[in-house]
Amino acid sequence: MQHLDLQVVRQALQWSCGGQRVWLCTVLATYGSAPRAPGSLLAVNASGQWLGSLSGGCVEDDFLERVGRGAFPEPVAIVRYGDGSDSRSSIRLPCGGVLEVLVENLPAECDVQAHLRELESALQGQRRVLREVSLPEGTRLLVDDQSQGPRVEREGACVRLRVGAAQRLLLAGYSSVAHFCAEFGKGMGFEVILCEPRDEVLDGVRLDGIEVRRELPSEFIAHGGCHADTAVVALTHDPKIDDLAMLEAVRTEAFYIGVMGSLATSDKRRERLRRIGGLGDVELGRIHAPIGLNLGSKTPAEIALAVLADILRVRNGIERAAL
């Protein structure tokens, strides 16, 4: 299924090319309980058609009503929902949360359509961009993004939005730990792909909502299975699976690469990868081994939790020393 944000941008582009004005809304921040994460998108046209989501429905209804009354004529505005502090949005969210929304009023112009095409390209995984929107004039700038960090950042009158493909979790081989990683990753909104060529290992395994590919993970990676928003984790203890996956993963832009094993096992693997695979210090330095945060994990579920926590740390641009 397509990344929802990609669907939203494509629909906004279609409306704009058809001569319709589009209001593009982005969740900037959430406080307390909120159903949609920062960076989530909603697009609305002048006819009241819409695609995407900001909340469970109450915010969308209020926003559509206001657009229909001619609200948000300015190029860009920030609206706060949930606590009654914004006179333009008196509703309170049933979940008790608060969210702030960036509302961009986009005319049907060539520069707007060019901007939306760049966003479409980024959401397809062709590049990662940092989208800068200036307040209150609404000027927009796209720059290549080579860093990790929050999807939304605000600095004075500038809002920065990280735009890229749907976050992908690539599991190199099946194991009990990989099973829990798949479930946790799905719950966190990752597109989860499991590559496992061993039929006997998958016998009786059920993973709902997970793409299972019966092939070597190294082959999937070598044929374009990774982009800059991919986390690759190998959790089998089988060098034929784990080592080959690492050799291919370090040649990609994957933002996280990790492999399970003790300190001694990890040292032996690095030596093998250096001797047999020809990897240097830079490539080896990209591999998190032992994988995950040191949480004292013992069970498969606990180890998986430590792995996903470390992936989240890297994705949000947080150094280990800051924990």
- How many structural units, i.e. domains? 2
Shape: elongated
Number of helices: 10
Strand order of the largest sheet: 12-11-10-13-14-15
Per DSSP, what share of the residues sits in E-state strands of 2 or more residues?
Answer: 15-25%
Biggest β-sheet: count, sense, barrel? 6 strands, parallel
* Unreliable residue stretches: none
Order of helices and strands: HEEEHEEHEEEEEHEHEHEHEHHEH
What gap, in angstroms, lies between the N and C termini? 35 Å
Proportion of helical residues: 25-40%
What's the pLDDT, averaged over the residues? 89
Lay out the secondary structure.
Blueprint: H1 4-17, E1 22-31, E2 41-45, E3 50-52, H2 58-68, E4 76-81, E5 98-106, H3 110-123, E6 129-134, E7 140-144, E8 152-155, E9 158-163, E10 168-172, H4 176-187, E11 191-195, H5 199-202, E12 211-213, H6 217-225, E13 230-234, H7 239-249, E14 256-259, H8 263-275, H9 281-285, E15 287-288, H10 300-315
Parallel strand pairs: 10-11, 10-13, 11-12, 13-14, 14-15
Antiparallel strand pairs: 1-2, 1-5, 2-3, 4-5, 6-7, 6-9, 8-9
Helix pairs in contact: 1-3, 4-10, 6-7
